[in-house]
Amino acid sequence: MYGIVDCDNCYASCERVFRPDLNGKPVVVLSNNDGCVVARSNEAKALGIKEGIPYYQMVEQWPHQKIAVFSSNYELYGELTGRVISIISQEAPAYFRYSIDECFVYLDGMQHINLQKWGENLHQRIKKSVGMPVSIGLAPNKTLAKIASKLAKKFEVYRHSCIIDNDENRMAALKWLPVDDVWGIGRRYAERLHALAESLDYFAMLRGWGLARQTK
């Protein structure tokens, strides 16, 4: 089994570690030169603030909205995410840091334990020790683990830890996630897959129409 631990809204969450008064309020982090938005809290996303929007445009579009704005502090982000990785290294048999806010874990030999509960406990330990919220996805391969982490982040019922461990869960997850958002599928490949799906639907319709005619 594979897993991925993803820091939720990493830069914005790092800023909130030292500003708990900002929990539940819109927070954005700007690029190095404060030119555009590079990170947003869920509350900022709910307002409609898009990643990459120039800061001056954000001010113009939300002039009366109280939005906490921070310049990037990569030293802080590196320090806090490093603490997250340190905890992961103590809980997983093996791990690989994929980016500043994501870490894959390899869970060989842990099939005898409740991995769903393991993920929940890992989230709680990281939140208590570092103050960083994380979402954890668990699955037989890395792609499905990434999808599971998206589900853990999206739906509170998973309690920050989602596992895809059977065909029923796999099909439900793949049906929920647009193909464009699947890890490793770029825009051009997604267009090809959409075209293929439309062709398959068309031929299925023709086959169904032919069978319907034969039964008359």
Care to describe what's here?
This protein has 216 residues and is of the alpha/beta class. The chain has 3 domains: 2-8 and 75-179, Alpha-Beta Plaits (2-Layer Sandwich), CATH 3.30.70.270; 10-72, MutS, DNA mismatch repair protein, domain I; 186-214. Helix 1 packs across helix 4 and helix 4 (74-91) runs antiparallel to helix 5. The strands form 2 sheets. The chain has a 5-stranded mixed beta sheet. It is built from 8 helices and 8 strands; from the N terminus they run βαββααβαββαβαβαα. Helix content is 49%, strand content 18%. It has helices spanning 10-17, 42-47, 55-61, 74-91, 115-130, 142-154, 167-176, 187-214; strands spanning 2-7, 27-30, 37-40, 68-71, 94-99, 102-106, 134-139, 161-163. Strand 7, helix 6 and strand 8 (161-163) form a beta-alpha-beta unit.
Name its key features.
216 residues; alpha/beta; Alpha-Beta Plaits; MutS, DNA mismatch repair protein, domain I; 3 domains; 5-stranded mixed sheet; 3-stranded mixed sheet; 8 helices; 8 strands; 49% helix; disordered C terminus
Per-chain topology:
Layout (H helix, E strand, L loop, with lengths): L1 E6 L2 H8 L9 E4 L6 E4 L1 H6 L7 H7 L6 E4 L2 H18 L2 E6 L2 E5 L8 H16 L3 E6 L2 H13 L6 E3 L3 H10 L10 H28 L2
Parallel strand pairs: 2-4, 7-8
Antiparallel strand pairs: 1-6, 1-7, 2-3, 5-6
